[in-house]
## 1
Amino acid sequence: MAASSTEAAGPKEPNHGLRIFAIWLPLAVAADLVIWLAWGQHLPPGQLTDTAKSQQFDLLVLFVLAAPVMIFVLTFFAYSLIVWRHREGDDEDGPAIHGHTRIQATWITGTAVIVLFLAGFGTYELAAPGMAGAGAGEGPSAIWTPRGGQPLQIQVIGQQWRFTYRYPQFGGFETTALYMPVNQPVQFNVTSLDVIHSFWAYQLGVKADANPGVNNIAFTTAKHTGQFIVRCNELCGLWHGAMVNNGQVVSMAAFQAWATKTEAQLAPITAQLPAYSTVYDPTVVPQINKAMAKAGIAGANGYYYPPNDPVQP
Ligand SMILES: [Cu+2]
């Protein structure tokens, strides 16, 4: 601070610390109340699923902690500009400050408390049962699985440049439409046919990388019906930005009706698909194998190259 209370010359220096605190405190309390009571339920990614809700809560906690810090910085900035600005005829520097134990101790204690709390809170949110840290697209063997019966299995298959979905509990049909029932745990098995994609169902609070040869598992349970958007979230080539589609959370009855109807409709196509498996190996897709054999391409690295592909190895 420019003027220390220990070397006051002339009129007594006011207690700047106390004044800044008195301005900061009501602003910080007001901001936190507005965030907690009014803004909280509007934070992304919304409340469509249990996972989305849990992410929204984590964001809310971060906002509530961050707002007082930001308001302190702005208050201090504004106070300095107004109170300590250069005045006509005053060309003296303020007294030099060499250490201030109370400010240093307050600063270290404040930042340490905030950072340690966040480390503890973050660890709890990741590790506690039912929290997002296990079975949220971290890999093939989730250490936590949802309670309350068998989850509905939905395989998400990324490929350039579209997502398709397989429903193994309904004969393994594959479709471009993503339907899921409300109040029913869903297990997404995310994989890819070619390059790395990422299945990002924004309103579901689900984001899982789609790696070829890997079954990446993410759980969620929808809390109400509604539409959600799916985007690819990993740059995957020319039409990455167009890799978008909508999904629907519908009632259990509507889902059952849709799934059984689609299963029957697609039965002739399903018969041509390879048997359901948690990962797709393009080299075992019979049609591609045939095409490879016909073109005399070894396909040793697992990719199919058309006969006159210039980048053919
Ligand atoms: Cu992609």
## 2
Amino acid sequence: MPKEVVAIIGAGLMGHGLAAVFANGGHEVTITDPFPEVLASAKGRIAEALDAAGWPQAALARVTPHAALRDAVAGADIVIEAAPEKLPLKQGIFAELEAHARPDALLCSNTSVIPIGQIAARVASKHRVLGTHWYNPPHLVPLVEVIQTGGADPANICRMIALLKGLGKVAVHVKKDVPGFVGNRMQHALWREAIALVDAGVCDAETVNLVAKNSFGRRLAVLGPLESADLVGTDLTLDIQNYVLPHLDRSTEPAQTLKSLVADGKLGFKTNQGFSRWTEDQKAALRAKVTEHLKLLNRILPG
Ligand SMILES: NC(=O)c1ccc[n+]([C@@H]2O[C@H](COP(=O)([O-])OP(=O)(O)OC[C@H]3O[C@@H](n4cnc5c(N)ncnc54)[C@H](O)[C@@H]3O)[C@@H](O)[C@H]2O)c1
């Protein structure tokens, strides 16, 4: 696998993890962020990510922070944007990338849900634009969705998938640039129903979490939804769907409960209150549990 120079735009939660993955894979990494304090802490956080993944710290020497985006992208073969999920901001960044990156550099976005074509609206060289949607934390979750846009050169999709596989990732080809791609469409269909059940008084938030974690959630890492349908039988699946689908939530906007939580400043871990209340100890314990669980799965179920 050729060694690439990878520029990461945005050194936040996702950006520092992406830097750790590429640097551990032997690639040179540049990273930029407009906030000096964020950039200053990037290498320390990348070191922690390497540590969490059980990777050698030597990779840190391959990471170079740059204050200016144009310096970070100047020599890059691949650029991955991991800036906030705001369309105008991402569109502006992509216009800058086209102006300052080499003409043959791939321009990728790590957006969670926004179609890549919209993000690249102001980019002329659309053949080199694609989506690479990673999951948090990127150094511990195997999947990356590689999203094909209207004008993308299929060779660039193949190049990206090969690069990601070389890093040990499970890279999948998303053939249409739809909002939410594959993973977040499924995930948010589940979250919409979870909130609707609480709103309808069927159960409380704790029960939603207990049911998901102790039922289908137990199987999901080894049994995908359509494997599950095959396992129980497509005939039973049809009978169940005929009965239950009309009863599932079909709202096309977020539930009022969710809007009210946000309006009241109940932002979850950030403010210690969301659907549930959180103490500092509970937050630390849950974060540690997720990390240990992901590491265990990576040991016993390599992608
Ligand atoms: N957090 C997740 O679980 C997750 C998972 C998959 C994808 N994503 C997506 O990844 C992207 C980044 O998310 P995050 O969670 O890392 O957010 P974050 O807020 O932790 O990090 C974003 C970083 O971008 C920086 N930034 C702000 N303006 C910028 C600009 N003009 N140019 C460059 N950098 C700028 C911020 O200072 C910040 O450090 C978003 O599009 C998000 O939807 C997030």
